Amino acid sequence: DIVMTQSPDSLAVSLGERATINCKSSQSILYSSNNKNYLAWYQQKPGQPPKLLIYWASTRASGVPDRFSGSGSGTDFTLTISSLQAEDVAVYYCQQYYSTHYSFGQGTKLEFK
Amino acid sequence: EVQLVESGGDLVQPGRSLRLSCAASGFTFDDYAMHWVRQAPGKGLEWVSGINWNNSSTRYADSVKGRFTISRDNARNSLYLQMNSLRLEDTAFYFCAKGSTISETYNWFDPWGQGTLVTVSP
User: Which residue among A21, A98, B53, B102 is least packed, with the fewest CB closer than 10 Å?
Assistant: First the structure.
């Protein structure tokens, strides 16, 4: 099974500053036949279900603000929030969908500094 | 608007059974795979099971294989999870989620329902 490991476990960032969350997969999730990385990012606020932010490692889901961006390839990926807003305080998860035994990272809790 | 509404969560004893349901609306249900994902209180996300558009292909996490059965009724726009031989470690919020393709493979999940709580306790 593919293990997804996020870093850090928690992160405190000031309003308006950049937040960076990392996600590493135990094996490559880049499909060579289509050159796509099978990675998604989700945001989960307290008491709410997860919300899709990014798929194919870098494609923003519909309605997601452009301050959210995804990057990376192979085994190393990053979610960046360019300018932290109040509503971005949440737990963020990465997910691989390369393997049919889907797996998530352990989550990164993003807080205000 | 796409909506997924789970129901059926309850407090049950170890070894007993429970059936969860998920009512879907706002999209063509049989155009998409569907999944169950769970989250123990205060913990992370764990994919449980997925089913393709027409019930012909299903997949399970190793932790539930042989105990849980996923199914769907396209005429009723509904997804189900039959949970047998429940264990303490099955305690979690169970979310249903719409897959991104017709197959249960290679899916991201969008959107998710609000979840239903299953508590397994003596």
Answer: B102
